[in-house]
Amino acid sequence: MNDALIRVLLILIAIITVLTGLTQIFASGFMLKMIGADASPVSQHWFTTVGMFMVITGAMFAQTLWTRSKERAVPLWIGVQKLAAAVLVTWAFAKGQTNALVLFVGAFDFASAVLAFLFAYRIHQ
């Protein structure tokens, strides 16, 4: 896979991250119910907070990619964040806190992490 294709895929991932973060901010109860999680006011508040971080990090990543920054730290740490997200949503499913829909989220985040790590490595070359 060439660097241009990886960059385009990562820009799409960053945009999807922003859009899902916005959805978590403005429709947290709906999203929590969709994944079979507790939708109490406290859960909705924290889910909204996570959504805010998704908007910020997704936008930062999109800008870094769009401007063709050579800074390796951003894709590296986005990869770490995506890998951690994949592990944590899978763990939530394993503990019976969500339905199987989160496994698709986990798989998407895992694939995103692999691409981000690959991109960070290639920037260094």
Could you state the order of secondary-structure elements as H and E?
HHHHH
Strand content: under 5%
How many helices? The count is: 5
Based on CA atoms alone, the radius of gyration comes out at 15 Å
Shape: elongated
Number of strands: 0
Sheet having the most strands: none
Break the fold down into its secondary structure elements and pairings.
Elements: H1 3-26, H2 28-34, H3 41-66, H4 73-94, H5 101-124
Helix pairs in contact: 1-3, 1-5, 4-5
3D structure, described in words:
The chain contains five helices and no strands. It is 82% helix and 0% strand. It is elongated. It has helices spanning 3-26, 28-34, 41-66, 73-94, 101-124. The protein is an all-alpha fold and 125 residues long.
Please outline what is shown here.
This protein is mainly alpha-helical and 125 residues long. Helices cover 82% and strands 0% of the residues.
Please describe the structure with a list of short key phrases separated by commas or semicolons:
about 120 residues, mainly alpha
